[in-house]
Design goal:
Structural class: alpha+beta
Strand order of the largest sheet: 2-1-7-6-5-4-3
Number of strands: 7
Helix content: 10-25%
Radius of gyration: 17 Å
Largest sheet: 7 strands, antiparallel
Order of helices and strands: HHEEHEEEEE
Number of helices: 3
Strand content: 35-45%
Shape: globular
Length: 140
């Protein structure tokens, strides 16, 4: 196993340089670490309202903050990599295999109000959106 990791590390170092390899290794380690936001968002029914003139809204029963990170890939089991994690902001990328992937910024204003910016590919098509999420009550 360590021999395979050594070959992979050498390949990454040659292809992308030491800095990129270190960032990827740190990201993989951070993926297993719970976010600083995890205890701050209240579970329940959330209204997600789009930004702009034609933006609609929808409601979502949120029991896990990951639901807000992968809005375009709700039922996919995706690999998530944490890029930045602070008490007020979580930035992740996620990969869902053939279903696509994305990058999401989740900014917490209060435990009941968040700003979400996400972009990526879902179903073979690009997406990009900005939403405001507000907890509106308990799940029905």
């Amino acid at each position: 196993m360590s021999e395979v990791l050594g070959i992979m590390t050498t390949t990454w170092l040659r292809a992308f340089g030491a800095g990129t390899a270190m960032i990827l290794a740190a990201g993989a380690a951070m993926a297993a670490t719970p976010s600083k936001l995890s205890g701050q968002l209240e579970p329940g029914e959330w209204e997600l309202r789009g930004r702009g003139e034609d933006a609609g809204s929808r409601r979502l029963c949120v029991m896990d903050r990951r639901q807000l990170l992968q809005i375009q890939h709700p039922r996919n089991s995706c690999k998530t990599f944490v890029l930045s994690d602070s008490p007020a902001m979580l930035i992740v990328t996620y990969e869902c295999g053939a279903a696509g992937g994305g990058r999401t910024e989740l900014r917490t204003e209060t435990p009941r109000l968040v700003q979400i910016h996400s972009q990526g590919v879902a179903g073979g098509a690009p997406f990009s959106f900005a939403l405001e999420g507000r907890r509106v009550g308990d799940c029905r």
